[in-house]
Amino acid sequence: MGIHVTKEKVKVKYVVGEGSIVETVSTTLNVPSNKPFIERVLDVTPELTAPVSATVGEDGIIEFDNNNGGQISLGVTYVAAEQDPPQPVHYFSSADTGEYINLSDLTKTITILDAEPGMDVEVNVDFVKVDYEAMASDTALDQVMVELTIKVTVKVIDHKEFEIITGIEGLDPSSIMTENLLVEDIVSEESYHRQSRDNILEIDEEVERVLKVDGAIIKTKEPEINGDVVTVKGEFQVRVLYVAGGSDQPVHVATGTFEITENITVPELSEDNQVYVDLTLKDWTYELSSTNGGQQIEVDAMVQINITVTELKDITVVTGVDCKKIEIETELLRVDEIIEDKTITHTFTATADVPPEKPEIKTGGILEADINYLAFDCEAEENEVKIFGTYNTGVMYIANQTIDDNINPVHYFHNTINYTKYINVPGAKPGMKCDVDVKVKRVTGRKVAVDQVRLSITLQKDIRVTDLKELEIITDIIEVSSVVDEPDCEQPAKIVYIVQPGDTLYKIACRYKTTIEALAQYNNIANPDYIEVGQKIIIPRKIIGDCKG
């Protein structure tokens, strides 16, 4: 028949499976001793301490790591019962007192069939509903009862390589079914180990004995790329359990957060590549030493840095062939198809108001304006994406007042501003996954009133919308030999076939309309699952018949 196929190797993040649970948990928060009692609770806001880390356990059960983001803290904003001094609105976080909700304590479990230990796990946590009520332990309101409904969704990923048929020549084009896919092709995956040294944890008391030292990565920042050098940044936290000196020898806990910065050369890295970084704290050592005011623990951490480099690839996938002269082999492909991957820049204005307790702004007194906190998310809607969140603006200015020697004091204030914007994304639909990374490019401020500043803000948004695609793709075509269609008298007594790369005994049997058993028996093949390239397979005319595999 003279069929020629074009193949392309693609390594993708294969989606093994997805699962989710919804659960309501209850907890009681205590107002810190340095805070006033509660008159009325205004808001309770849940927050993840860091991106959640999870692994695949036995039987596909997802296990959450408490030490690496598997914790949720709760922030409470309330009106204080005490109005003197006049600061009626107060805030405290359960993280200040170590009161967390742990994902590993959830009673429901997520099981992903076919998931195996070592596969990657992506976790998304949504806070569905928050109910709260101020309560009194004695006579004053000093506790907050919280019921938090959490939805946890996981996706298990395996990095899998496919040899995909992208074109067929020699057949009627109308018999070939294709589909276009835009996917991330994994160009390289490398793992590095780096030692983070001289991380000092100060302890202002005598340490009798260190009981335990552990830690975890709590933040992985966006990698910086300069040529073929990737700058990796992150933070890890160390927790030390120790026995304090003294007659009663109480057990205390000390924690410290340290930064990681490493420059790693990645050969042949181009500006078209996407770079993903994952940090894991593998091991650590420590040394206890004395100082003038107490003692210190020097921690050396071994950090594993996994760098994955990808590039966008637009491929045509053959999904079906309507032809009786060939046999096909298929494989299930489950990947996140990229609907849109774009970067946009948005410049807009916002107003920042000077708090009442702050002095007025001197004319020309704006020294600096910045944004010191960003929290953004996005949702896919019909042919568009909604980007929403909050950011904190900070303004440093010269006050319109004088102190000693006629010096104008410098003041600083910040405002929290809500943000919503819709971006046109053709092909987007509700339910698709949306990711956004927002960076501040420029912030300027000018005085428009004695107590008001007009800010000009430029944000860069990297938006990606993906949709889980599930396709049966053709990975191989077996052409049925024309010799079996010739008249019986014209068929040779036997055919000698030379095994080619990619051949199996099943493929050869189908090609000549016979069976695996017949070929194995005639050629004395002990293991039908194993044949070698270059091996001769004899196919006598008497065993040519129907292909039964």
Automatic annotation (TrEMBL):
Gene3D superfamilies: LysM domain (3.10.350.10). Residues 495-539 form the LysM domain. GO terms for molecular function: lytic endotransglycosylase activity. This is LysM repeat protein. The lineage of its organism: Bacteria, Bacillati, Bacillota, Clostridia, Halanaerobiales.
